[in-house]
Design goal:
alpha+beta; single chain; 3 strands; 85 residues; 3-stranded antiparallel sheet
Amino acid sequence: MLLIPYQALSSDTLEGLIEAFVLREGTEYGEQDVSLNDKVTQVKTQLQAEQLVILYSELHESVDIITKHQWRQLVKQGEIDGDPI
């Protein structure tokens, strides 16, 4: 698995990735309705603040957005090579 800096992606690719992430079932924002645009903005802000990271799985040929804490756990468990960031 590879950590992909969000800055390395084109703005269209990043936007599409974030939209797919927030539209995924199970990504809830509570009782209030939050617009897709607001959700995308929130995720972008979290990526810029390094609270979230983008992870590419070569094995599954998939991309996911996970928390920095999840990333550290994967590194600690030896599931991913790298330094915990």
